[in-house]
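User: I'm writing a short report section on ligand binding and want a predicted complex to refer to. Could you take this sequence and zinc ion and write out the structure as tokens? A short remark afterwards would be nice.
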Amino acid sequence: MFRNFKTVPQIIFGRGCFNQLDDILSLRRTSADAAMVFLLDDVFENQALRERLPVKTQDVLIPVNVDDEPKTAYVDRLTAQVREQAGKALPSGVIGIGGGSTMDLAKAVSLMLTNPGSAADYQGWDLIRVPAVYHVGIPTLSGTGAEVSRTTVLTGPEKKLGINSDHTVFDQIVLDPELIAGAPADQRFFTGMDCYIHCVESLEGTFLNAFSRAYGEKAMALCRNVFLDAGPDSDDNLMIASYFGGMSIAYSQVGICHAMSYGLSYVLGLHHGIGNCVAFDYLEDFYPEGVAEFRRMQEAHGISLPRNLTADLTPDQVEKMVNVALVLEPLWENALGKDWKTIMPRERIFDLYLRM
Ligand code: NAD
Ligand code: ZN
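Assistant: Sure. The structure tokens for the complex follow:
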């Protein structure tokens, strides 16, 4: 079966295009009393960007905190807060301004405003029945591809798993390279490497096809430019690399690094980008060229990675990591083929975690 892949229908790209947000939203304001809900990464709470948001009197602005990656309980609290503050009318839209975590929160809240129950009820594939309210993603960090993906990655009471559905996909994204210019260098690197690793895992995977290869190769070339040969267009290139990398994996799959990074994140709370970097550094048996180039990029940017992260964990905790990683069967199959369970028995994953 071929996937009938839903893409973001409206994209605006270019330096300063954020200034058109008011015009874009005004076409989507459903009635005078329906609020636009702005979920803004709280890192911008006292910054100029906050003042540039086109917030009208009926609108709701909520600073969101992403020190921890999004949890289903947080999505439920935010949804309740929006219902309380937005008045009777269903909001006209939810706008997420921030990195992958904030964009995922915006996707999830837009879904939960129209679907009953808790976000945890919908972790999985195609469990969402009712379309979300209009939702917009505005990245302030580039690399995750969350702006194009059909998932919102959430940690729930039992698992770290996305709400994967066609309704999750943004209705509009605003790609303004000026918004990522102020990101701290190490954070920019970790999130950027998420994109680089998407490309490696897609291009080295068994699910590869012409669609994914075309996007993956271009995204990879852009990442090389950004991280090994940076010029004045770096932010533009990184933003497009993230988008193309996301398009590449959307029609193929990620691989071993992402599966293992999920385990690190579930047990240690490591953020996705840094978790990927930690895991990738131990995967040279599987991705020799990618890991070598990753290390050159790391050196060029003077980035050091945390070590001995699993040294103090109990065997049960490491087993938990293995379990979380193994739930992601399509990732293993993409990386290693149908026979992946023989190539990658539990013990081998356990040993890899012990080295981290
Ligand atoms: P993030 O959103 O987790 O943010 C990381 C840190 O950077 C936060 O402290 C944030 O406040 C700060 N930050 C964001 N923009 C900034 C800026 N311009 N200047 C200064 N600080 C800034 O980082 P991320 O790497 O973009 O996203 C990781 C998240 O994305 C994880 O929660 C992961 O699960 C999710 N993700 C989702 C998808 C998807 O397809 N939905 C894919 C990959 C990752
Ligand atoms: Zn990723």
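A remark for your report: Residues 144, 194, 198, 258, 272 surround zinc ion (ligand 2) (CB under 6 Å). The radius of gyration is 20 Å.
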